[in-house]
Write a structure and sequence with these properties.
GMP Synthetase, Chain A, domain 3, 2 domains, eight-stranded mixed beta sheet, six-stranded antiparallel beta sheet, 27 strands
């Protein structure tokens, strides 16, 4: 039978996202970074100014506003301004290359893009300048063009801000599928409101909390954690990067009570020799997700801090779906029971509900669910059926309703918290004149979660290129998704349909690991 989390009473109203903080502690910090702080009153005024400036540019409710930004206080202010103006925030992965930027802009039909000045070269190489309202630049030293900083500080003309419909789109997040180009996951004002309410309840957040989301706020995880905290009146610490040089001073200065990080980044952090238990003494909760939390990480984190790493599960289409409860039973290795507002069903491929302990595909029913993929009804119909969403992930549930992750149906590689589509890397390698065939898989790595390994078959009679040449060749086409290693094969294993047999490649990789061990 389906497993249900606690009921949710009401969603967060995105247009009143700052209400709790403004009421409880208006002059205290809402957003904190190593560069600056904004109080709740300052954040309210700045985001209202920015929302009015956006509308004064000619943007209308429902228009898509893309962003290519690293983690900054400005990025969260931008999102809040979009909520207030009824615009559709469309974050792009900050590591996107120009072709990927173009794809996202074309799919979303964005009207304008906010971009950091350090990405000026890639913006110039993309189609951003041809957008109807062009580019807003953050961090530019020159005075030309649209400046984000000026819009954030200057008083605009008096413009009434709209009250968005809960069913209207509020955000589009791009995510790699198992096949084909990235799709735009669409969330409404309503689904995001339910998402923030559920995450706040799951983390038991209050106005006394200080949350440090140690992941990019252009991804669903960092985005959801930040706004769930803001909705509860808690302060958010914005890390500009996720390395020791940035995070150690923030831990000591901001004293976060809740830390949420990707496993690989968290493992690197705690292995820095100058961190002590006192640096983590303010924490009441550390949560990790985005990939499997290694047993080594759990052991080392408990030894250093005295806290377990609470594991959870989520995806762009539904937000944070499961978490080991902070005040309840924590089962190490499990992603926890359903969060408030979620219902889970473990099903066989035939659709049959499976009993406790049996592995099957996870289906989810929740008001946080995406309304579909932007302008792609066929893809939406593939995963949404009768209000249930097929996650494509294989899980099993124990007798207490805790979920245990068993694998990915979609074969996505998770490297340093970013999703890598194997087919995209394979296509890049196949552009090389010497490559006959290519198969790409993820290989478990303690530091990175999974490394991208490419198996390559060379054309008959062609000179075999060096592995580093092929890696660079792929990097020029797919950027950070390029493989870390190349393995040359005399013949590529194929399945009965003639496609690359990744199951066999996985077995080859497992054999290599066993041999090395």
């Amino acid at each position: 039978m389906p497993h249900s989390g606690p009921l949710l009473e009401a969603p967060v109203q995105l247009s009143d996202l700052l209400q709790r903080g403004l009421h409880d502690r208006p002059g205290e910090p809402a957003l904190i970074s190593m560069e600056r702080q904004l109080t709740w009153v300052e954040l309210e005024r700045a985001t209202s100014r920015l929302a009015a400036h956006y509308l004064a540019l000619g943007l209308k409710p429902g228009d898509r506003v893309a962003s290519l930004m690293p983690n900054r206080i400005a990025l969260l202010a931008h999102y809040i301004a979009c909520f207030k103006a009824g615009l559709v925030a469309t974050p792009l992965n900050y590591r996107y290359t120009p072709p990927e930027i173009n794809h996202a802009l074309e799919v979303s039909e964005a009207a304008i893009i906010l971009a950091h000045a350090e990405r000026a070269g890639d913006i110039a190489a993309s189609k951003a300048s041809s957008l109807p309202l062009g580019v807003v630049t953050y961090g530019a030293s020159e005075n030309g063009g649209l400046s984000f900083e000026r819009m954030l500080e200057e008083e605009p003309l008096a413009i009434a801000l709209p009250q968005p419909d809960p069913n209207a789109p509020a955000a589009i997040f791009f995510t790699s599928g198992s096949t084909g180009p990235a799709k735009g996951v669409t969330h409404t004002f309503g689904s995001l409101g339910w998402m923030f309410a559920s995450a706040a309840a799951s983390f038991e957040l209050t106005a006394d909390d200080v949350l440090l989301p140690g992941s990019s706020c252009s991804h669903m995880g960092g985005f959801t954690f930040s706004f769930s905290a803001i909705s509860a009146g808690a302060s958010v610490v914005v890390a500009r990067a996720f390395d020791h040089e940035e995070l150690a001073p923030l831990l000591r200065a901001a004293r976060p009570t809740v830390l949420s990080m990707l496993p690989t980044a968290l493992l690197r952090l705690i292995r820095e020799h100058d961190l002590s238990r006192d640096d983590f003494s303010s924490l009441r909760l550390c949560r990790s997700g985005g990939d499997k939390v290694p047993a080594e990480l759990e052991k080392e984190f408990i030894a250093l801090t005295g806290h377990p790493v609470i594991e959870g599960y989520g995806m762009t289409e539904i937000g944070l779906a499961a978490t080991n409860p902070p005040s309840g039973v924590v089962k190490l290795g499990s992603v926890g029971p359903p969060n408030p507002g979620f219902m889970f069903s473990i099903r066989h491929d035939t659709g049959q509900e499976l009993p406790h302990g049996q592995e099957g595909r996870l289906w989810v029913k929740t008001p946080t669910r995406t309304s579909g993929y932007w302008n792609n009804p066929e893809a939406s119909a593939d995963v949404i059926q009768d209000d249930w969403l097929d996650t494509g992930d294989v899980m099993k549930a124990d007798e207490d309703g805790y979920l245990w992750f068993c694998g990915r149906k979609k074969q996505i590689i998770v490297h340093d918290g970013s999703n890598v589509c194997p087919q995209e890397v394979e296509e890049a390698l196949l552009e090389h004149p010497a490559v006959e065939n290519a198969g790409v898989i993820g290989v478990h790595d303690l530091m990175h979660g999974e490394n991208v390994r490419a198996y390559v078959e060379i054309k008959s009679g062609a000179k075999r290129p060096k592995a580093r040449e092929l890696i660079q060749f792929a990097r020029e086409r797919v950027g950070y998704k390029a493989p870390e290693e190349i393995v040359f094969l005399n013949a590529m294993p194929l399945n009965p349909t003639g496609k690359v047999d990744r199951v066999t490649l996985k077995k080859l990789a497992a054999g290599d690991h066993a041999h090395q061990a």
